[in-house]
Amino acid sequence: MSVLSIIAFAHRIAEETPVLDKDGHVTTHSWILPENAEIIYGGISSLLIFFMLFKFGAPAIKKSFAARTEKIQKELDAAAADKSAAATEAATIRQAKGDIEGERARLLADAATQAAAVLEDGRVRLAAEVVDLEAKGVTDIASAQGRVGDELRAEIARLSSAAVDHVVTGSLDDATHQELIENFINRVGAGS
Amino acid sequence: MSDNRIEGYARGLFEIARAEGTLDVVEDELFRFARSFEGSDSLRSALTDEQIPPAKRQAIIEDLLGGKASATTTQLVAMVVGSGRGRDLPAIVNNLVARASSVKHQEVAEVRTAVALTADQQARLGAALVKATGKQVNLKVVVDPSVLGGIVATVGDTVIDGSVRTRIDQLKSRL
């Protein structure tokens, strides 16, 4: 049966005799119900529209729902992964906290050990420095003694020189000058 | 001053003194004046000060040597000082003395004593130095109080030191 034959069949069923009012105007059969043709054509159109919607709209809607479902699933999966990662991180932090305590204890132990070593080293170094200072002090004292001795000898020499100058120049009278000159002349003359 | 200029001045002074016939006297006086010039800072600064006019410097020479040295010596020194060559006076005089000694085939014998020597002592000392060095000597006596006593004689590169100053210095070194 073709579409045209269906339409023709429907037309025959819907074909009605027009109803006239007392003035001769065409009017409806019922004050509330539509005409038969309107019911038939409207019903067919509605079925056709529902069919079209089911045929073409349903896959798109179904696809849209599927996509939305997939998106929601992904978000749920991501939330679950985040939760798992957070749990892992929390476990790591808790472990790290435990490690920090251990590290603090280890550092404190190391610091105590190093402090003890530094203290011992300082004691040894101080003892060595004391020995060096004592030796240097002894050397400085000996040097100062020598220097004072040298200065004393230099002062004695200076005073002696001044005394010699004073005595010699004071004793050089004319007779001595002449004697020195004569001795020089005689010595040079005899020395050839 | 360059050696050539010093030699030029010395040759000029030498020729003037020889022409005057007073070479021995002038040479001796110049030598003694040069030694005094070297030994006196105030004299040296006065005669070499460029701020003092040449006439003033020459007047100083006249005051110092006038009546004590021959006129030729005084004029020659005044000429050198007046020409602004006072700083080179000792070198000029030494060159002149060496030149005069060379002419006389002698070696300059510089003798420093604390007191002046008599003529007899100079003669005997000259003879002794001739005997000691084997050279004819042109004796130049300088009275130098820093010697204190005795004599220091320098003939060329030979130094014969019999001064009290040297003996005291040696004693001080030992002390």
From TrEMBL, chain A:
Topological relation to the membrane, as annotated:
Single-pass membrane protein
Query: Subcellular localization, per the record?
Result: Endomembrane system; Membrane
The positions making up the signal sequence are none
- Quick one: a GO biological-process term for this protein? proton motive force-driven ATP synthesis
InterPro entries the UniProt entry points to: ATP_synth_b/b'su_bac/chlpt, ATP_synthase_B_chain
Q: Give GO cellular component annotations, separated by semicolons.
A: endomembrane system; proton-transporting ATP synthase complex
Which Gene Ontology MF annotations are present?
proton-transporting ATPase activity, rotational mechanism
Keywords (A to Z) from UniProt: CF(0), Hydrogen ion transport, Ion transport, Membrane, Transmembrane, Transmembrane helix, Transport
Q: Which residues cross the membrane?
A: 38-58
| Cell cycle listed as a keyword | no
* PANTHER family attached to this UniProt entry: ATP SYNTHASE SUBUNIT B, ATP SYNTHASE SUBUNIT B', CHLOROPLASTIC
The entry's function note states: F(1)F(0) ATP synthase produces ATP from ADP in the presence of a proton or sodium gradient. F-type ATPases consist of two structural domains, F(1) containing the extramembraneous catalytic core and F(0) containing the membrane proton channel, linked together by a central stalk and a peripheral stalk. During catalysis, ATP synthesis in the catalytic domain of F(1) is coupled via a rotary mechanism of the central stalk subunits to proton translocation.
Name the protein family: Belongs to the ATPase B chain family.
| Descriptive protein name | Unannotated protein
Q: Name the species this protein comes from.
A: freshwater metagenome
From TrEMBL, chain B:
Q: What is its main location?
A: membrane
Q: Where in the cell is it found?
A: Membrane
Plastid keyword on record: no
A GO CC annotation recorded here is: membrane
InterPro entries linked to this entry? ATP_synth_OSCP/delta_N_sf, ATPase_OSCP/dsu
Q: Which GO terms describe its molecular function?
A: proton-transporting ATP synthase activity, rotational mechanism
Q: What is this protein called?
A: Unannotated protein
Organism encoding this protein: freshwater metagenome
